Amino acid sequence: MAVTTDIVQAWWRPKTVIARHLQRPKSEPFALSLLVAFLLLAFVSLWPALSRQAVLQPEVPMVQRLVAAGLALLASIPFWYLLAALSRWTAEIFGGQGSYYSARMALFSALLAVAPGLLLQGLVAGMIGPGRQFDLVVILVGLGFLWIWISMLVEAERGNAG
User: Fold this and answer.
1) Cβ pair 106, 87 in contact under 8 A
2) What is the pLDDT of residues 88-100, one digit of tens each?
């Protein structure tokens, strides 16, 4: 199934999406591709806010801001792997039967599913700037991510696949 379909479906049936992913043969390149797709969309979501900052503070060029943001996102890759491992260890304490691969798939799928929310967050940051509207979008995207990720992790920790 297309990743775009998974993104939409993950908002109302995250357990179905992760179960489908875990029924596939294990593929670290596929897991990494989900993370890279998320990072790419996260990078794009930063453009409006970076553009706004470049206009307000012209002494730092836009290209410099984009390069810094891109490098920071690339540097975050080990963090996401560590977070997946921590979630696996936590689930194991509570009787989870999954694997490190299933924990990575749950996290990376949830990150990619929330990417459209990040794009909206970026538009609000660039067009409106800081304020209540931006805070509300951040809270909604954050809560959406947590709900999707926890739902996917619970399904992944059943130990049926992965």
Assistant:
1) yes
2) 999 988 888 888 9
Cβ contacts of 158 within 8 Å, gap of 6 or more: 97, 98
pLDDT in tens, 115-162: 999 999 999 999 998 899 999 999 999 999 999 999 999 999 886 544
- Beta-carbon contacts of 160 under 8 Å, excluding residues fewer than 6 positions away, are 19, 22
Kindly report the pTM of this predicted structure: 0.89
| Three-state SS at 91 | helix
Structure tokens at 10: 């993950």
* Helix axes of 100-127 and 14-23: crossing angle, nearest 10 degrees: 130
Q: Taking a C-beta distance cutoff of 8 angstroms, is the pair 26, 159 a contact? A: no
14-23 and 3-10 are packed helices; what angle lies between their axes, rounded to 10 degrees?
A: 140
CA end-to-end distance (rounded Å), the chain: 18
Cα–Cα dist 72/87, whole Å: 23
